[in-house]
Amino acid sequence: MARDDTQLRCGDVILAVGRQSNLERFRLITETVSEVFWIADPSIQRMVYISPAYERIWGRSRQSLYDNPRSFLDAIHPDDKERVLEDLKVQALGQPFDHEYRIVCVDGNVHWIWDRGFPVRDAAGQVRSYVGVAQDVTAQKEASETVAFQANVLNTSKAALQQSLGEINEKTIKNFLEAKFDSALRDAAATMTLEEVQSDREKFLD
After folding, report:
1. Among 99, 101, 105, 195, which one is least packed by beta carbons within 10 Å?
2. Which residues contact 143 (CB under 8 A, 6 or more apart)?
3. Confidence of residue 107 (pLDDT cuts 50, 70, 90)
């Protein structure tokens, strides 16, 4: 699963950050994968590192994020921004977070982002920074929505077909009964009044 692979890579990143000797390994991982890896202080006032994938997904330069670490929030879809800001409050408490939101890129395209953050603690247990990974999951979202739409169309068509068949069967049976009754009464009609024939026909069909 793509998400499991991403979590494994994120675990590698956390280990690398905790061990300065693994800095080269960290750079190798973060600069060659499609996800955005980032390191920031708990209050997101300082961006320690942002991987090259940020420029491809957000359509903004990494330098812009170094200059203003919270500028990534500017791209978040208006309908999602309040929720994301609320979710990020856990970062100040030293807790991990995991959420999805939409971003509106410079070209106007909307992308779905799956973003996770994990606290990195020092020897005393204090949170010194956060390591996170943001993944573009637009394709997965669109595929899921397509499947859901097709399932809805199928269910709607099935219900309409069942209703149509029910109506057809009811009409067919009624026509059959009418034909049979009319045939059976032809011989007796000569000895019955018109009102009696019509009355019996209606009782039979009811």
Report:
1. 195
2. none
3. confident
| Opening angle at CA 73, ends 71 and 75, nearest 5 | 95
- Taking alpha carbons only, the member of 134, 5, 17 closest to residue 65 is 134
CA distance 62 to 48: 11
| CB contact at 8 A, 92 and 43 | yes
pTM (2 decimals)? 0.60
| Residue 137, C-beta contacts closer than 8 angstroms, at least 6 positions apart | 100, 112, 113, 114
Burial class (CB within 10 angstroms; exposed 0-12, middle 13-18, buried 19+) of 77: middle
